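hey
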């Protein structure tokens, strides 16, 4: 390398000397008078420039470092992959820490929920058409008990034709309680009066009510992404009511079905091809399906949409701060289903010719004592 440099240096000096001789031998140009041309003047010749000092190298010429001796290695695909895996590991670690924090927080909150004890809630479904003015009768009535100590949510369907004593109105169908409360401006309206009527007839404390109309029910189910229901037998109804007061034919096959909001409502309401008892059973199946859907982590991501749908569709006296507690009990508990069925009622025709159901309290009271008192 040293001899090559010497030859290059000598050749460079020879070339520089030759150019200087050519510039000295060339005829000089006459000086030009100054002008207003703003362009810079010509570059001075090499002869007029002071000679630059010659640079000499001390020691050996630096060469490229050998691999592994001070060189900066180029990042390869393996290094990039290790970096990505490192970021992924960090992300997983953060998510695990968040999950642990949520678990710890939910554990302490669950202990607080357990101390509150059982909460009884009346669930009302109303055929309330938003294009019409009420008052309306209740279409669905379910007595529910949220018991965190037993990790149980008990459901008891109440037939709407059950003939009971309506406070200040004598004997009538239980579904008229909501109607009277709305018509007479009872404090809290129809739902509050229906809650008091059920409590007085069944002798159990009722802490809250939850009322939902059909349109709101559909929006909540759709916000959840639908529900999955194992239909025990095919449902065929040639007289299903339509919003314009007509009828249509509906068919839901047996087996596991993925249902959107509209289909779930049909499954909950249809009764002309079966009876009110079977309809109550299907409604409890829907509540259990909602519970299963809420327990899925994928549904948790839809919580804002579900909450927004519920806020606009549900009328309730449950404080907003209590919603998480009831939801946690529902998700963490088993659903126990009961009903006031054919064995707990008998057919009766009123003086006015109405076909109703009379309660058999010997069959109903043990259910109340086990789950609601």
């Amino acid at each position: 390398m040293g001899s090559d440099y010497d030859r290059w240096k000598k050749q460079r000096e020879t070339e520089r000397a030759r150019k200087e001789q050519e510039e000295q031998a060339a005829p000089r140009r006459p000086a030009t008078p100054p002008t207003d041309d703003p362009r810079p003047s010509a570059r001075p010749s090499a002869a007029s420039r002071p000679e630059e000092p010659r640079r000499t190298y001390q020691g050996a010429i630096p060469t490229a470092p050998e691999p592994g001796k001070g060189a900066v290695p180029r990042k390869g695909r393996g290094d990039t992959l290790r970096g990505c895996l490192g970021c992924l590991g960090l992300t997983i670690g953060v998510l695990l820490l968040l999950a642990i924090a949520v678990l710890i927080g939910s554990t302490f909150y669950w202990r607080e929920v357990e101390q509150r004890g059982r909460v009884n809630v009346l669930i009302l479904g109303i055929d309330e058409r938003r294009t019409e003015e009420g008052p309306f009768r209740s279409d669905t009535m379910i007595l529910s008990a949220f018991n965190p100590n037993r990790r149980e949510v008990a459901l008891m369907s109440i037939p709407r034709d059950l003939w009971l004593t309506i406070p200040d109105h004598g004997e009538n169908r239980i579904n008229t309680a909501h109607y009277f409360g709305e018509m007479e401006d009872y404090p809290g309206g129809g739902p509050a009066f229906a809650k008091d009527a059920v409590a007085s007839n069944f002798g159990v404390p009722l802490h809250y009510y939850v009322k939902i109309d059909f349109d709101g029910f559909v929006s909540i189910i759709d916000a959840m992404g639908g529900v999955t229901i194992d239909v025990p037998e095919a449902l065929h109804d040639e007289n299903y009511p339509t919003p314009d007061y007509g009828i249509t034919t509906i068919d839901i096959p047996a087996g596991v079905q993925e249902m959107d909001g509209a289909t779930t409502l049909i499954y909950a309401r249809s009764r002309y091809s079966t009876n009110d008892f079977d309809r109550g059973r299907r409604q409890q199946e829907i509540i259990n399906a909602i519970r299963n859907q809420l327990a899925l982590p994928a549904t948790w991501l839809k919580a804002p949409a579900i909450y927004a749908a519920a806020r606009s569709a549900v009328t309730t006296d449950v404080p907003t701060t209590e919603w998480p507690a009831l939801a946690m009990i529902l998700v963490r508990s088993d659903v126990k289903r009961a009903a006031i069925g054919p064995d707990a009622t008998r057919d009766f025709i009123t003086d006015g010719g109405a076909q109703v159901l009379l309660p058999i309290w010997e069959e109903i009271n043990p259910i109340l004592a086990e789950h609601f008192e």
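Confidence is low (pLDDT under 50) at residues 31-49, 52-62, 93-105. The first strand starts at residue 119 and ends at 126.
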